[in-house]
Amino acid sequence: MAPCIFCRIIKREATGKIVYEDESTVAIEDLHPQAPVHLLVLPRKHLASLQDSEGADEPLLGHLLTVAAQLARERGLESRGYRTVINNGSFAGQSVFHLHVHVLGGRVFRWPPG
User: Does the pLDDT value for residue 113 go beyond 90?
Assistant: First the structure.
């Protein structure tokens, strides 16, 4: 099976606008933004979904959220608020099966989502 699109972006085999990277994480701009700011925070390690994570992944999962908060601060979203989302499975809206955290901001969000 061919690597997923996010794995290919992380390896620079496919185009994606990378806005942050470190040894375990890459963040990109969403290709189809749902808000003025819409970033995706990806682990370099391929996990198909949150459901596939294990106890050993706990530091990585925490790091993804820390990076999401840092990127939100850098884009001035902190004062008015922003949303972080992890879709888990197709019924929840997951369309790329590589775990990722959406960071959305710059507009008002309603509840419930979807």
Answer: no
> How many CA atoms are closer than 13 Å to the CA of 52, on its beta-carbon side?
13
Task: Point out the catalytic residue in the list 38, 63, 100, 102.
Answer: 100
Q: Is the dihedral of CA 5, 6, 12, 15 positive or negative?
A: positive
Q: Is 38 a catalytic residue?
A: no
The reply to whether the predicted model has a pTM over 0.70 is: yes
Domains, the chain, with CATH or none: 5-105 (3.30.428.10)
Question: In this structure, are residues 25 and 39 in contact, taking their beta carbons and an 8 Å threshold?
Answer: no
Mean pLDDT of the chain: 95
For tokens 């290709």, name the residue. Answer: 31
Query: Is 47 a residue whose pLDDT tops 70?
Result: yes
How far is it, in rounded angstroms, from Cα 18 to Cα 89? Answer: 25
